[in-house]
Write a structure and sequence with these properties.
The protein is of the alpha/beta class. The chain is built from twelve helices and ten strands. The chain has one domain: Alpha-Beta Complex (2-enoyl-CoA Hydratase, Chain A, domain 1), CATH 3.90.226.10. It has a six-stranded mixed beta sheet, sandwiched between helices. The protein has a four-stranded mixed beta sheet with strand order 4-6-8-9. It starts with a helix and ends in a 10-residue tail after the last helix.
Length: about 300
Amino acid sequence: MPAAQAAVRATAYETLEVDLDAGRRLFWCRLRPKGRPCFSPELLRDIAAMQRSVARLFRGGAADPDPPVRYFACASAIPGIFNLGGDLGLFRELIAKGDLAGLRRYGRAAVEAIHRNHTGFGLPVVTIALVQGDALGGGFECALAHDLIVAERSAKFGLPEVLFNLFPGMGAYSFLSRRIGRAEAERMILGGRIHTAEELHAMGLVDILAPDGEGEEALLEHIDRTSRWHNAHHATYRARRRVDPVTLEELQEVVEVWAEAALRLTEPDLRRMARLAAAQDRRIAAQPGAVAAVC
């Protein structure tokens, strides 16, 4: 176990912070994208590399008799923001060029990462999203892909894509429809409103609701309380995926729909997208220690 912890701590990423809590067998991944906290291509590349590194820690693969990781937690290193979603600047560039292949490439990279989280990397790992701020668009989709969501009360969730005449194409429909039904999923997708953590807890989307500033403590308490039954919990989540699967093929097919729809956006739609991106930039610039670069 010390070797696994040392290996994790020796690995550096440009847009992630990682660590291994060896006592709890908990792998921490904190998102720290450069500039606007969105899923930039750089962040997606780091996530894919990090996910491969988790798999390498298992000497015997899924059958490792002494697995170094039993839990995976995804959080944010940016106060008040989990993730604001897709790289809107890149989207505008690709749409302006009519680059369908580029949109597909971005979407496929995103859903491949999301699907690996959704399946626990094909390993006996329970995945947990810790949301301590805003999870919008792809940030919300990322959280939904985990076995459990722990959220602090002030956290906000939303799918704003409809505001610029698009829909969230990286898993929202797949995950929401299975959790809350198609009708409610479509209301959430097409409504474009912001939801509180308390609302989503009442709907069953947030599993653990924590007071502000106590989300990490709540996550660790859950692990400490349930680790004795890790096998039962992991098997239950595997069974859930078997009974109501979200396949990579399904996610990729929805990406095709999303990419084609993106190329049908009009100039007014793109201006609304630009205004949303500008609002995100202003918010980041107002934060202490904000950097000048944006996605």
